[in-house]
Specification:
With about 375 residues, the chain is of the alpha/beta class. It contains 14 helices and ten strands. α6 (about 180-195) runs antiparallel to α12.
Length: about 375
């Protein structure tokens, strides 16, 4: 299966970023959106990026469309629209008559398993798979490819080759809640919030400690603010529910409170931190009203790192056993998605002493609020 003609549904940030990458790498792209203005903005962004890079001659390789029949010659259609499951099924129903024989369909996925959605979608099962571009789409190398029970090997291999052609590193994973990245992001963020609630550090202290020990580019609170606290909380709820409500992954009331206040991170200029022109200029002062013992206990960098990494390692082992994912794939996904120099298994070997469980003190059991 050779793929040259790309159809993308949704002029979202993901759809626009993916379209730009495909065009820059010589593919023919048609970008669809219901809303004319959204489509115009997306095309303007792509045009600007091409002209800026001295590659304006590639503009002829992309076309904005508002008719799904225009996808009739596509080799693959990538869904990138931010829609409800009901709206997505409607899209697939409208798309199906226009799919050429052999055209693959890559359904958007990140948190929810695809099985329930695809069970009632009229799509060619052997040519349908899930695709999760990690943000920022233009610069993050990772793409998770989700194999359903019916996806053919030829389809998986063809889409993986396509992604490599635009500079991505595809990791193939079995359909499950959160795949690899979102599944392991949950215990990491929840561990950071538990440290916060236990008074073991303010956000900047926890982030600084984690970066100092791990060598990572960003700490948990910086990553959460970047992705958006509303997105973080929504993902936490979805993974928690899809896995049957395990206590270890119960969403944090602190995160919920900040979302209720509309403090969503960089996009709202305040989350765990305060932002000006995209840079951190302070720490959210409301945290002292939400977290009773904020920063009251002096905690070492090693202990903070251990408290953050231990649940990630435990979840990674559980995930590997559930979906038969290889250690290599999990390490690759985590390193690329989070910007870590090592994955959880390597950290567990290289920092074994720091990951040993400590005795729980009375201070650790103090009330959060």
């Amino acid at each position: 299966m050779e793929m040259k003609a790309i159809g993308i549904i949704g002029a979202t940030g993901t759809g626009t970023g993916a379209a730009e990458l495909f065009v820059k790498n010589g593919f023919q792209v048609r970008l669809y959106d219901d809303f004319k203005d959204s489509l115009a903005v997306a095309l303007a962004k792509i045009s600007w990026a091409l002209e800026r890079d001295g590659r304006g001659g590639l503009l002829g390789n992309i076309e904005g469309v508002q008719d799904l029949a225009k996808f009739s010659g596509a080799d693959i259609v990538i869904e990138a629209a931010s829609k409800s499951d009901e709206e997505r099924r409607a899209y697939f129903g409208r798309l199906r008559p226009h799919l050429a024989p052999g055209c693959a369909v890559a359904a958007r996925c990140a948190v929810k398993p695809l099985s329930a959605l695809l069970a009632t979608a009229d799509l060619p099962s052997e040519l349908t798979l899930g695709l999760h571009f990690i943000k920022p789409v233009r610069s993050n190398q990772l793409a998770e490819l989700v194999r359903t029970e019916r996806t053919s090997d030829a389809c998986i291999e063809a889409v993986a080759a396509l992604l490599r052609g635009i500079g991505k590193t595809p990791v193939i994973v079995k359909d499950n809640p959160g795949q690899i990245v979102e599944r392991l992001a949950r215990p990491f963020m929840l561990a950071a919030l538990r440290l916060l609630e236990a008074g073991k550090g303010r956000p900047h202290e926890i982030d600084t400690a984690f970066k100092a020990v791990s060598g990572a580019a960003a700490g948990p609170f910086e990553l959460a603010d970047l992705s958006g606290l509303d997105s973080e909380y929504s993902a936490a709820e979805a993974v928690f529910g899809a896995l049957g409500g395990p206590e270890r992954l119960r969403p944090s009331p602190v995160l919920q409170r900040l979302v209720q206040y509309g403090q969503l991170g960089r996009k709202s200029t305040i989350g765990f931190y305060i932002y000006e022109e995209g840079k951190i200029v302070g720490e959210n002062p409301i945290l002292q009203n939400v977290v009773r013992y904020l920063g009251l206990k002096k905690t070492s960098e090693g202990e903070i790192f251990g408290e953050l990494m231990r649940p990630v390692v435990e979840e990674a082992r559980l995930l590997a056993s559930e979906i038969m994912a290889s250690e290599y794939d999990i390490e690759t996904a985590v390193k690329l998605a989070f910007g870590w120099p090592k994955g959880p298994f390597a950290f567990s070997r290289d920092f074994a002493a720091l990951l040993e469980k400590k005795k729980v003190s009375e201070f650790d059991n103090l009330d959060t609020f």
